[in-house]
Amino acid sequence: QQQIILQERPNGMPDERTFQFKEVEVGEPKENEVLLKTLYISVDPYMRGRMSDGPSYVEPFQVGEPLNGGVVAQVVDSASDQLNKGDIVRGNLAFQEYHIVEASSLSKVDTNGLNPSTALGILGMPGLTAYFGMMHIGKPQEGETVVVSGAAGAVGQVAGQLAKKAGARVIGIVGSKEKAAYITDTLGYDAAVEYKEGNLSSQLKAACPNGIDVYYENVGGEISDAVWPLLNTFARVPVCGAISSYNLKEGEEDIGLRVQSFLIKSRVLMQGFIVGDFSKHFKEAYKFLAQGVSSGELKFEETIKEGFQAIPDAFLGLFSGENIGKQLVKVADG
Ligand code: NDP
């Protein structure tokens, strides 16, 4: 069975030298352990930060050690009374095809007729992130204008729909025509702005004639520089991510528009957050999202690459915008 390790820390965009596949043995489960077969692996933008060794809110990956992150797997052998053969579980696990782990480190996934992949997307970390950023920090009100960047991605697709549900007018910033059609036709966004078409400032101004009350920030950089001048009095800015800066080379700086004067003039509240900050409220958020999905009110997409070997490609595709909705790698059938 295979695992994927961090071969070398990248400087700038990761490439083939960053990753290496390795054959490893898998043993037998001892008491309280289970043997798992990986079904889906989640590739996420934050993994890029872990490939560098600077201080952050998650431990960096170690060179020569396997990457790890969100995995959905099936129990194929159990020496624990907590889990049975056939159960589907989610865990933060090494990226490999089979695992032996303590049952207590896993959470059982109740698929409710849905594909288990949803436990890594809309009913997993990205869905929760959208929920807390939008509902606890953005707090959209009826009639307000909400802008979401990275609007067709795993987090963005949920964030925009939550703002719609709250009665706001919602505009999404995306990188392609296909994504623009997805967010307006399927997700119900009121308008889409394509940043690769150029003239972002004037496109955004035209799409937001009443200014912007909530800006759900996923990307940073020049895209967000076009947002700051349009922020209304008492606007809220949940700062969820800044993907445009994740692959800067050593010594390159993320310099943009100076934002302070806009924040002061409009008394804007800008707050960075990490989804884990809200762990006390995970249950209520899961329930809310699961109800939305089962009633059909919350829509979502997944982009799935097949095979363990597709991990580097799937990960790098996040930075060229290949994915619509949550990017996953399917490793095996359940
Ligand atoms: P996405 O599914 O949104 O995938 C990334 C998308 O970002 C791409 O599809 C692409 O869409 C866009 N993108 C890539 N490079 C750039 C760039 N240079 N400039 C502008 N857009 C770019 O990922 P997630 O939904 O998983 O994550 C979205 C953001 O949320 C990330 O910044 C991530 O780090 C952050 N995050 C934060 C969490 C937290 O706890 N704070 C938790 C989870 C995610 P397009 O084609 O539109 O350019």
Automatic annotation (TrEMBL):
Q: Which residues cross the membrane?
A: none
Please report the stretch or stretches of sequence annotated as the Enoyl reductase (ER) domain: 12-329
Which keywords does the record carry?
Oxidoreductase
Coiled-coil zones:
none
Which SMART domains does the record associate with it? PKS_ER
Keyword hit for Coiled coil: no
Pfam families recorded: ADH_N_2, ADH_zinc_N
Q: Which InterPro entries match?
A: ADH-like_C, ADH_N_2, ER, GroES-like_sf, MDR_fam, NAD(P)-bd_dom_sf
* PANTHER family named among the record's database cross-references: PROSTAGLANDIN REDUCTASE (PTHR43205), PROSTAGLANDIN REDUCTASE 1 (PTHR43205:SF7)
Name this polypeptide is given: NADP-dependent oxidoreductase
